[in-house]
Specification:
192 residues; alpha+beta; 7-stranded antiparallel sheet; 3-stranded antiparallel sheet
């Protein structure tokens, strides 16, 4: 019995303090989760390319939707778009600026390798300089406006080289996670 202990001790002796050392900064796990990352800046640039957009309202006015400002919501695994809307036309005395917010999730579309907005939740239109009755009327158009502006909007397109390694390993994009700095797209095994 003592011989085994002495043999084990002799083999472990060269390790010395290294075997019991505290982890160092180089031992820390990577700061970002594994997967394909997309920064908030890249998302913002991509969504801004589709705007401004104009929506006529029955010949009475035009609603011009400006490029949205994206906000990451990691706790809900969603994004929020603050949409600025300019309303002007014959029914209004002057131009009015308003806004509304849209929260949405993301999905991966394999046919064109894109990340798209879906599961939209729309907040009410806010126009501080318009009469409440006019704002109520505009709010009937709010959901349609948000749907046309953001439903299935492409937020990012993965390039073939982005997926080459995953493809070689028999993997494909899977769950999308919203982080403090952008998105991380995990890879999962392709179905057989």
């Amino acid at each position: 019995m003592q011989r085994r202990f002495l043999l084990s001790a002799a083999l472990c002796a060269p390790l010395g303090q290294q075997a019991w050392a505290q982890p160092t900064a180089s031992d820390d796990p990577p700061a970002k989760p594994p997967g394909y990352s997309v920064s908030a800046e890249v998302l913002q640039r991509s969504v801004a390319e589709r705007f401004p957009m104009r929506y006529p309202v029955q010949g009475l006015m035009n609603l011009d939707v400006q490029p949205p400002r994206l906000q990451l919501l990691p706790a809900q695994n969603r994004l929020r778009a603050e949409m600025v809307v300019d309303a002007a036309g014959p029914a209004l005395n002057r131009s009015h600026r308003g806004s509304f917010d849209v929260d949405f999730a993301l999905r991966y579309e394999a046919s064109d390798r894109t990340l798209r907005a879906h599961q939209l939740r729309i907040d009410r239109l806010r126009f501080p300089t318009l009469q409440p009755g006019v704002v109520e009327l505009l709010n009937t158009y709010g959901p349609a406006l948000a749907e046309q502006s953001l439903r299935e909007v492409v937020l990012h397109r993965l390039q073939p080289q982005d997926l080459r390694m995953a493809d070689a390993l028999g993997m494909q994009p899977g769950p999308i996670t919203v982080t403090e700095t952008g998105l991380v797209i995990a890879f999962v095994l392709k179905p057989l």
